[in-house]
Write a structure and sequence with these properties.
This protein is an alpha/beta fold. The protein is about 40% helix and about 20% strand. Helix 1 runs parallel beside helix 10, helix 4 runs antiparallel to helix 5 and helix 17 packs across helix 18.
């Protein structure tokens, strides 16, 4: 029997962030990972052709480079090096009109002014306003709910009136926000496309907030990539943890959480090993997996299970990696320098695309989110070649036929051929990962969902993962949800893992810990009264 202060289930970025913070506090920590290597969605491998390094899921990391829990770990001291493409993002429409966002503000302005004179100036005003509130806004985003102190600081910075205006703006649909802020289609395409990047349709409440947040992070930080592949970020997290005495054990899927006297006391892995957790168990797994599969039924209030019946995963995904013999011959030359591309739809097309997905249909016209990885990081493929990927979304369901996926991939390649005639002639090899394959590679990507649950407003803040506290705490004492299913949700920033670690540390304090738990338990009893 193995005993440590904390057991972390899952070696994805959230689990590794949580483990690092607990190790920083002097706890002994073991991270148990079901796959044969750590990283979850942040891994790299040669899956197309020799010499081509392909990120298996996440590739660009604006939320890791901005002030976030991952950024505060100082991973540059543990081998991580960030690289950036010449420009950040280009959006290409079916008629090959293009708009480009660059960290050089003047370059972004010039691209926007091609669509409507003055939009560059309007964009600069938005950037200026954002720079004033960014530190406090990000603290609000990454602080366990309710974020009282950072929210007070934000209101002091803006004033009450502007704070209310900001809240209203962040709740607008992206399509509405784009029309209110900008005269031309260029800036509107950027905001709506980036909203869809986060799985929120441009006509949905708060999609404007998501799109604007991503746009402002792109403007300031770019969409950086780890040199050598996404797996370099995971290696830095693991190296940091091990230097602080933490362990990462792979090939050890957890199948059961031991609950005694109302508290989590350890876990059992599929090989029968028991791991004792003296202080806490932190679960970097989807909320339904935690409550339906890992916990004994007697430990879960019936109201929690009732609420989980309404838990909504985000959209399914089909991702294709290509090894290309040379640079892509884009019709729009400015696309050649962008690491990230949104290809295939204009504003009306994005609305139709989102409507089809919302109604459970495969869109006739796909939006492709693409990555030119060698453009961003020359180490990703042999000189003169390009490591390239694209993904598109499908309705969320658990079964797909090979024929359906093949049709989707054919549609993706038609879009690419239209945007870059001769694309298909450059293909040396490709690898297709549909929803089934994505979940096989990472059990947290249930049905090909990338964000641990929809980012729509009805499943955010104190509604995430179910109506409750919006915190990492669970109805089981000393058990914490550390995955993207918890606030603040998906994205490689480490927020859910950091919040879970903070909750575990607060609960364990000798004097204030019992008070902390009493308050949490009291709130949960009111939420789940009658159970």
């Amino acid at each position: 029997m193995n005993g440590v202060d904390a057991v972390v289930i899952g070696a994805g970025p959230n689990g590794l962030v949580a483990a690092n913070l607990l190790a920083d506090a002097g706890w002994s920590v073991v991270v148990l990972e079901g796959q044969n290597e750590p990283g979850g969605s942040v891994r790299t491998a040669e899956v197309t052709a020799p010499g081509f390094r392909n990120d298996l899921c996440s590739s660009f990391f604006p939320l890791s480079a901005c002030p976030s829990p991952i950024a505060f770990l100082g991973l540059e001291d543990f081998g991580l090096r960030w690289l950036r493409s010449p420009t950040v993002l280009t959006h290409l429409t079916p008629d090959n009109a293009s708009v480009t966002l660059a960290t050089d503000l003047a370059a972004t302005e010039a691209s926007l002014d091609r669509f409507a004179d003055g939009d560059g100036r309007r964009w600069r005003r938005v950037v200026s306003a954002w720079s004033r509130i960014e530190p406090d806004f990000l603290r609000v985003l990454f602080t366990p709910f309710p974020p009282l102190r950072p929210a007070v600081r934000l209101v002091r910075t803006t004033g009450v009136g502007d704070a209310l205006r900001l809240a209203r703006q962040m709740l607008l649909p992206a399509a509405t926000l784009g029309r209110q802020l900008f005269a031309g289609q260029g800036a509107r395409l950027l905001v709506a496309g980036l909203a869809l990047h986060t799985d929120v349709p441009p006509t949905s409440t708060a999609s404007g907030g998501f799109g604007l947040l991503m746009a402002m992070l792109a403007q300031r930080y770019g969409f950086p990539v780890p040199e050598g592949g996404a797996g370099s970020l995971t290696r830095a997290l693991v190296t940091r943890l091990r230097r602080r005495g933490g362990q990462v054990v792979c090939g050890a899927p957890v199948v059961h959480i031991d609950v005694r006297y109302g508290a989590a006391r350890g876990v059992r892995t599929a090989d029968g090993r028991a791991w004792v957790a003296r202080r806490a168990v932190l679960a970097d797994v989807p909320a339904p997996t935690l409550y339906h599969e890992l916990l004994p039924g007697s430990a879960v209030p019936a109201r929690v299970l009732d609420d989980l019946a309404a838990f909504e995963y985000d959209l399914a995904t089909v991702k294709v990696d290509w090894a290309l013999a040379g640079p892509i011959p884009w019709r729009a030359p400015e696309a050649a320098g962008s690491g990230t591309l949104h290809i295939g739809l204009d504003g009306d097309g994005m609305t139709r695309y989102a409507a089809a997905l919302s109604s459970g249909r495969i869109p006739d016209e796909p939006l492709l989110i693409c990555g030119q990885m060698t453009t961003a990081d020359p180490t990703r493929s042999p000189a003169g070649t390009e490591s390239f990927w694209a993904y598109t979304h499908l309705p969320h369901r658990r079964t797909w036929t090979p024929e359906e996926i093949a049709d989707v991939v054919a549609g993706m390649e038609r879009v690419l051929e239209n945007a870059a005639p001769g694309f298909s002639s450059l293909v040396l090899a490709r690898r297709v990962a549909g929803p089934v394959e994505l979940e096989q590679e990472n059990a947290n990507l249930v049905g090909g969902s990338l964000a641990g649950g929809t980012n729509a407003v009805h499943q955010q803040l104190f509604f995430r993962p179910i109506p409750g506290l919006g915190r990492a705490d669970t109805p089981v004492d000393r058990l914490y949800l550390a995955s993207a299913s918890a606030h603040p949700g998906g994205g490689v920033h480490g927020g859910p893992g950091a919040n879970a670690a903070k909750a575990a540390l607060s609960r364990d304090r000798r004097l204030s810990g019992p008070v902390y738990r009493t308050v949490v338990q009291s709130a949960q009893r009111r939420l789940y009264r009658g159970q």
